[in-house]
Amino acid sequence: MSFVEILAIIIPAALYSAAPLVFTALGGVFSERSGVVNIGLEGLMLFGAFSGILTTLLIQDTVGPAAPWIAILVAAVAGGIFSLLHAVASITFRADQVVSGVALNFLAAGLSLFLIKKIFNKGQTDFIDFRINKIDVPYLSEIPVIGDIFFSRIPWTSYIAILLAIVVWYIIYKTPFGLRLRSVGEHPMAADTMGINVTRMRYTGVMISGVLAGIGGAVYATSISGNFAGGTISGQGFLALAAMIFGKWHPMGAMGAALFFGLAQSLSLTGAQIPVLQDIPSVYLTIAPYVLTILALTGFVGRAEAPKALGTPYEKGKR
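Predicted structure:
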């Protein structure tokens, strides 16, 4: 097997696996750039996956292949609303942001399982009939070498995630909104003095993180798992959180780290087809993303500088 053939297996699988992580990591960038730690990305992603699958099952007989795309939009709204719990606790009531995020994770897991058992009388949903399938991009997939590696057997959601990272970079670093968002995460008192509503900006950052994490969960469920159970989202939210930190709270860095972790995740699927990895037990390839996460954060997190006010509740008039 040639090197190009190996790339044609690895790269599409990596882009396929990375899309949910990219969406969720970008959501984390919005929240933490505003100064609010969001450990609850796992729970938001989980609730998005539940909402996405449930919506698809309810409308697929009516709208057909459009069902998963509509479900992703519903999951975005559900994630945004669910994130309000974290926003109220950590911003309005000034609760410990890490504890609030952990509580959100437990609540999402318990609530989604409870609703599944109530609706389906079993521990998981049925499988959806219509998924977000892998596609070959017209014309581009026919380009020699490059077409087979970057434009074949990849769902549209992967390309949308990469384009979104560019859009998020522009919003955060090139617009007045982005400047205000970063200012309340760096020095909220100075931002308040300049007339910026710190509470409103932080609520906005957390809600955007909920929207994007909900999309990430729904993309995972409707393109990869095909149904929802208690273990459908099992660590992907934490991988996205690690990608955001590894990417130094920068949209493009978060996307790059998410692609790296997506590559690690894809090895468990593609390892049997690659000569070098064929003899490695599958269990090692399965745990590879989490081992690489630990190694990456151990080596780089000390050099990454978080927003200065991250994790610090703001109380107007108090130094």
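Summary: The radius of gyration is 20 Å.
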